[in-house]
Amino acid sequence: MMYQKQSSASLKRAIRNLTKRIKEHEEYIENPYVHVPEWDEYSALRQEGLKKHWEKEIRNFNESINNRIEELKREVIMMANEKLTKEELNI
């Protein structure tokens, strides 16, 4: 998935928000009672399923962060190339 239509500020904001979500999900895994007060009432299978879900969410968030970082890198390279071209052409 590409994020070419987003501004640098929007990409950076998304990275911050996703980073926050990762921390939240890591806390869910470490202390599920915070997110699911009735944790003890869940079967072991359901508990494991929720933990796997949170782990998958973390992987998805990391993938989204990496995609946005790559888009920011492309943007910087494009800007550098554009500046170089303008300087070369004396525009």
Structural commentary:
The structure is a single chain. The chain is mainly α and 91 residues long. It is built from 3 helices and no strands. It has helices at residues 8-30, 32-35, 44-88. Helix 1 (8-30) packs antiparallel against helix 3.
Short account of what is shown:
The protein is mainly α. It contains 3 helices and no strands.
Give the helix tally: 3
Residue share in helices? Answer: over 70%
From the spread of the alpha carbons, the general shape counts as rod-shaped
Which secondary-structure class do the elements indicate? Answer: mainly alpha
| First-residue to last-residue Cα separation | 35 Å
What gyration radius follows from the Cα positions, in whole Å?
20 Å
Poorly predicted residue ranges:
none
Number of strands: 0
Would you list the SSEs in sequence order as H and E? HHH
Topology, pairings included?
Layout (H helix, E strand, L loop, with lengths): L7 H23 L1 H4 L8 H45 L3
Helix pairs in contact: 1-3
Structural key phrases:
79% helix; 91 residues; mainly alpha; rod-shaped
